[in-house]
Amino acid sequence: CYRENILKTAKALVEDTKLLVSGAASSQDKLAQAAQSSANTITQLAEVVKLGAASLGSDDPETQVVLINAIKDVAKALSDLISATKGAASKPADDPSMYQLKGAAKVMVTNVTSLLKTVKAVEDEATRGTRALEATIEYIKQELTVFQSSEVPEKTSSPEESIRMTKGITMATAKAVAAGNSCRQEDVIATANLSRKAVADMLTACKQASYHPDVSEEVRERALRFGTECTLGYLELLEHVLLV
Q1: Where would I find the Talin IBS2B domain in this sequence (predicted)?
Q2: Separation of alpha carbons 5 and 39, rounded Å
């Protein structure tokens, strides 16, 4: 029942995505209507996903987290898409903002597809761990793209904060190795959830610290490079766990 509702609402959201993209080239009224429609649809989708997560029961919290993370990714992608649509409104077809819009729409569709795959996998215990890991790998890749962009973080943090956040990577690495050895679905799902947070926190802290006023251009470049290399290394580890 929940799966059917999620599928139906997700399809409606994909249609809203198309309207948002086409709305950038049309009137402000149409754009506003498309934005309002997508906001309503994402609210409905979040509700049915939460109901679906609740139906799993409290004895499987890690899988519930996988579902909630999937809808959070869709909501974030929609927010980014609406921002990109506003930036591209009334601009010519070859304007850079139009390419950003197309990129945001692609991420949006990717995340909706990922949500649907996750919902399907939840019904099959044998594939839950694999799917959770695939979704986490996709999420980390998207976070790395944001990290590598030229966008300056809204706030800065101390280098100490960045160092503190690397401890999460150490813990997640140990968990990933253990999951690769045990091959138990619950261990793999827990690894996927922990990895997602650990890498995202590390990337945020690293970028914020690299833009601290006391940091030189050379040190910033090194910090950003090592943040990227750490993430790529961790992705390789998760790919190995997935293969196992």
Answers
A1: 8-119, 129-241
A2: 17
Q: In 10 A of CB 79, how many CB atoms? A: 15
The C-alpha atoms of residue 24 and residue 42 are separated, in whole angstroms, by 20
What is the pLDDT, as a whole number, of residue 204? 95
- Which two tokens mark 138? 């996709």
What domains are there in the chain, each with its CATH number? 1-122 (1.20.1420.10), 125-243 (1.20.1420.10)
How far apart, in Å, do the first and last CA atoms of the chain sit?
33
pTM (whole model) above 0.90: no
Question: What pLDDT does 9 receive?
Answer: 93
Considering just the CA atoms, what is the radius of gyration of the chain in Å? 19
At residue 132, does pLDDT exceed 90? yes
Mean predicted confidence (pLDDT) in 189-201: 96
Long-range contacts of residues 133-137, Cβ cutoff 8 Å, at least 24 apart? 133/188, 133/191, 133/192, 133/238, 133/241, 133/242, 134/242, 135/66, 135/69, 135/70, 135/73, 135/192, 136/192, 136/193, 136/195, 136/196, 136/238, 137/235, 137/238, 137/239, 137/242
Q: Which of 237, 221, 234 is nearest to 165 (CA)?
A: 234
* Nearby residues of 77 by Cβ (< 8 Å), 6 or more positions away: 104, 107, 108, 110, 111, 112
**CA dist., res. 193 & res. 132, Å (int):** 8
Residue for token pair 């402000």 = 28
